[in-house]
Amino acid sequence: MGRKRNPGINVFSISSFMRLTLFCCFLSLSLFAQDQGFVTHGEVSASAFVASEENLPFWFYTNQHNQFGATSDYQFNASVESFYNINDNHRIGAGLSGVYRNGVADEFQRINLYVSYSNRWIEATLGAKKEELKLDGLSATNQNFLWSGNARPLPGVKLEAPGWMRVADGLYLDWSIAHFVLNDDRYVDNVLVHFKDLAVKWDINTNNTLKFKLQHVAQWGGTSQFFGEVPSDFGTYIDVFFAKRGDEGDTPGDQINAVGNHIGSYLFEYNLNQTYGDFTIYHEHPFEDGSGTRLANFPDGVWGLSYSPNDKKIFSRILYEFITTKDQSGSGTGTGFDRYFSNKLYRTGWAYEQTIIGFPFFTFDANRTIDEETTPIINDVVQLHHFAANGYFGKFAWMVKSSFSSNFGTLRQPFPEKLNYWYNVISLSYDAEAYGVITLLTGADTSNLAEDTFGAGLQYLYKF
Hints:
globular
């Protein structure tokens, strides 16, 4: 007879965490301000938008850490980060940023709120901190199917390597492990999130590099409307860490599969450096269970190609991605129907504040009533062609994104008719140096079933 779990004490107190982080952040900033040896930088920005429909064009607000609402007319943002080098081996830091915009339930929210410590071996972050932009921000997923930067940063604790760590000649490792909380209004309250990744880089020679990265995310714990308190003790955490199958004390779904809701991805990347520029070829393969980990859902995932010329007089980077989630390990008996961001227990899915955390082209229906049979993610079978480029000429910077998305609903509940969208945005920025940066945005979304949307925006950014 299997052991029965004792829910015990939740390993993460949300209210205590937020109070501690806020206190440490302001204390650190205050201490830094008293010492002339610290390094600080910040920015303030303001934006205004107009659109032909209620929603703005897709790329105006997507993958922006929820700093813009889909129906926002204006937005104001302020941020500051400070770092202090204690000596050559130790550094502490803190960051705080907030945003005010209309058209959302919570008009004023934090974005970053963290304190950090780093040395040559480890970096620790307490709080909520945005992920760094990859590939100049041109990728449809920020080169991360699970964490595209679409939702606000999750509060938590993260330990990671401060950079690539050399383990042998030409061979390097990178790693991170984190514990987050989903403290929004959801079907299962106070869900915990376990995260870890491990990356390997092989510098074959000066021109060729191979990278491989494994990511693992699991939702666990919380309070379910149907099952009550879901176990969140240390023993449960160990089971979640190793994706162990549940026993008699767990929910029925955990007894069949692993404890918690697990998702992950493999990233394969090849870099070729030439005298005329750099090529990057990559494939990120998502998985939701055992069938995905053994590639039964091939060719699902992101297939990308990026070129960055050494001569950046006009173009800085050109990128193309093909993304598909149509396989999902099939729709037959046994394995299949992977539903990457959905789960029977954690029915709100891989979302935060009604915003998809990962691949942003899945559809989250915030108006749908969630019960034991439904989920708000109503579209996860998608095929996408994404093109993007950016560059500079003089004091002007430009960027273009164009994405053609075909949406099929879900494998079990397909749409009656395929829904196509074509999302487009063009931005042109002028750097007035000491006076800030002014950006003009234009966007257009077209569809075979929905109304076409046209919009424009004006943004002002000042850095200090």
